[in-house]
What does this fold into?
Amino acid sequence: MRIAILGYGVVGSGVAEVLKINAAQVAKKAGESGESIDVKYILDTRDFPGEDQKSKFIKNFEEIERDPEIKIVAECIGGETTAYDFAKRAILAGKHVVTPNKALIAAHGAELFALAKERGVHLLFEASVGGGIPLIRPFCGALLTDEVQEIAGILNGTSNYILTQMNDNGKSYDNALKSAQELGYAEADPTADVGGFDACRKLSILLSLATGKTVDYKDIPTEGIEKITADDFAFAAENGYTLKHLAIAKISAGGVQAVVAPFLVKIGHPMSTVSDVYNALWARAKTTGSVMFYGSGAGKLPTASAVVSNLVDIAQNACAAHIWTAERVKILPAEGFAMKKTFRIYEG
It folds into this structure.
């Protein structure tokens, strides 16, 4: 099974690296269907003269689009524009698409799922929420045979790292952000992370999966962490809480209550112990009860490993049905969250 990687940034280069590092294991798993996974093309507008796979680099997507040997396209470009164009064209050309791109899935998921179903191919996105945490697959499996009623999670590692540095090491917001940027956890423009928009998109994907309909991330009330100060952490500690940036939702017959914002979390609650760049997701379903996912929510190799796991899923023809319709879910007022000072309180 020959594939093309779109974009050779952090995740795209990570996918190529994981396929190389874990070649024997990937071949063993994918080979059960009689097909191994081989990278034929790497699409990027930049030049990489020192790369050992430089013969595979191309700059024209049409080569991939027209090549019948390419069965899967791993979209690692990011964003909603070029990524959307290439993903749609790949599906129309009868190719499976795997992506870690939460912006693409949150904005265009329903359309692309319908198109993939029409063309008889798969669109998989395990790495779009939770990075390396195996989350989408079990969420689409065990939990979706049940009725998901509530979700709460720390879904952005950058914001969680910044808050951890402020709480544990007494850093100011500005200094904690600078540290995150120096370590590669935050972009030069960190707005998507610290403003809550990244977590909001991830929450919308989970809610769309849970309801089977489109939950538009633009409708979810979203607050970032930019205004949190040392005084806020002192106030929280005095009252037996810590501060976490949470994505929370309750699902009912009438719609969805959802919010992404800083919350006061009681010290000792499982969410209060999730620190640094780690992510966690708690979900409650009608008959399953409560389950919790925890792990590395970002990073080059963990995220790339999740992408590769989807490549193997397709090679094995073992793909769960990931789909929701274009019908919009009503977002209800985020009531029922108690207020204390300027923060909501999450009791679990």
